[in-house]
Amino acid sequence: MAAGRVRTRPMRSIHRHSISVRSFYKKLKQMAKVSKKRGREFNFSRFANRHIALKLAYDGRSFTGLATQGGGEGDNSVEKHLFEALEKVKLIAGRSGAKFSRAGRTDKGVSAFGQVVALQARSAFRPGTKPEAMPLHPSDAIVEVNEVGERTQEKREIDYCGLLNRVLPEAIRVLAWAPVTEDFSARFSAESRSYRYFFSARGLDLSAMDEAARLLIGSHDFRNFCKMDVVNVRNFRRRVYRAAVRLVGHAEALAPGNSAPRMAVFEVEGNAFLWHMVRCIMQVLTYVGRGVEQPHIVSELLDVELRPKKPHYPMAEDTGLVLHDCGYGHRLDFDFEARNLAHLQAHLTRRYEIHAVEASKAADQLRALAGAKLRVEHVKAWLNEAVDFAIRKGLPDRAGQRLKERLLAAVDGEGAPALDWSTVLLLLHAENVQIDHAGHLSLLSCRHTPLLEREAGPAYEEKIRLLGEKRRNEYEEKLELSRKGQECEEDGEEGAARTRDKAFFQKMLKQGKMGQPDLHDAK
């Protein structure tokens, strides 16, 4: 037995060595194959290019804005991720030759469901294939013909949506694509943009807000409803086609006097929008909803001859704002694809359910709080402290002291040694007082200086005078460019080029911008 074991050991050793060598060479061969593949560059010249438009949706909370910020380490823009995806799936060789344009430039925190971008992308077809011979939809098939006129095979266009959605972050989705002409610009070809701003309707008079919103309809100078970009914008007139405030849903009551927030939306559609225009409008509408401004404040602020200076007020938060759609009339017709919509349906349903579960958990916890018992002396101590804090933050002292007296008397009037938290909320509600997001008392009708009585910023002409040297040079360069475009004489070939420049600059001037995307809304 011992001798037998001695004889088999060398054979096993040789066998193991043989396997090891074969494994090594197999691995070496795989590495060489991968290395060769990595070293082989994609040959874009084997394919035709075509100008296409993409319809995008993205959650603005996840990104630093739409426009790329140079592509550096801190750049987490939608465009950075989009171009990385386009290059990864070999639809473009790089941004420089992509002829990229965007409909609207949304800032950090702002989402989109109808953003449109246009670019030159690789097609599935051979070079020289005319655009009109290419399919208009992913499911359309075109019969290819070889050099001698023989029918070869049925070929479909690249599934742009599916290809990009597989490599994009989940917070960015491509909804649809459409072929467009070479002169199409996602920005300049757009006839309208529409925004939706979602907000909690708690404590707000929606009918008053809707009345105020409808005063925006028409052509107006919106300099008092935006952040002035005096270097790039000289014309603040915009046309609003539609504006309204409506309720979008109801939630069950959580406790007496403290119902779950009803959700509402402010919808506005116009030809173009100024920097932060929607968020500024929304803030003014919120003042109207709280009852501290009347609906006619909108008309007052639109009268720039009477009110050439914008009063100081903050903007509404960014998270509720969505670029909902961009309209192009007959120039653009997105054709949706069922397979892509099925994936989007699953993605949005999953996202909705996650947030609905979180909302249900929070609602359940709020219901549990309603029954919590508090000793009366603790309630009084907290009310004293909370009203004193409100006074320090700007509530007039006399009004604060009267409020404190009424609240303390109401607590005593309950005649019990302990109160439910829901009872405390009812007492606050009776005095038109809410608890804000920081846990402090918020008086809906107090601590508001009317907009027309506030300190105002400099007028447009003053802002021009106050420009620093660098910004003034930029302003004068763009002013000169616009003048050249308007004053050129049209003669010969050079005249034709100048005519194109003139039309371009006139279009830019009409939209109020000189070289920057017209839509910035909103930080």
Automatic annotation (TrEMBL):
UniProt KW Isomerase keyword: yes
Biological-process GO terms, alphabetical: mRNA pseudouridine synthesis; tRNA pseudouridine synthesis
Gene3D superfamilies registered for this protein in UniProt: Pseudouridine synthase I, catalytic domain, C-terminal subdomain (3.30.70.660), Pseudouridine synthase I, catalytic domain, N-terminal subdomain (3.30.70.580)
Database matches in InterPro entries: PsdUridine_synth_cat_dom_sf, PsdUridine_synth_TruA, PsdUridine_synth_TruA_a/b_dom, PsdUridine_synth_TruA_C, TruA/RsuA/RluB/E/F_N
Biased composition (Basic and acidic residues): 478-487
The entry's keywords: Isomerase, tRNA processing
MF annotations from Gene Ontology: pseudouridine synthase activity; RNA binding
Coiled coil: none
Source taxon at top rank: Eukaryota
Region span, Disordered: 478-502
Region forming the signal peptide: none
Residue ranges of domain Pseudouridine synthase I TruA alpha/beta in the record: 212-328
GO CC annotations on file: cytoplasm; nucleus
Pfam families: PseudoU_synth_1
Stated family: Belongs to the tRNA pseudouridine synthase TruA family.
Xref: PANTHER family: PSEUDOURIDYLATE SYNTHASE, TRNA PSEUDOURIDINE(38_39) SYNTHASE
Name under which the protein is recorded: Pseudouridine synthase I TruA alpha/beta domain-containing protein
Organism: Pinguiococcus pyrenoidosus
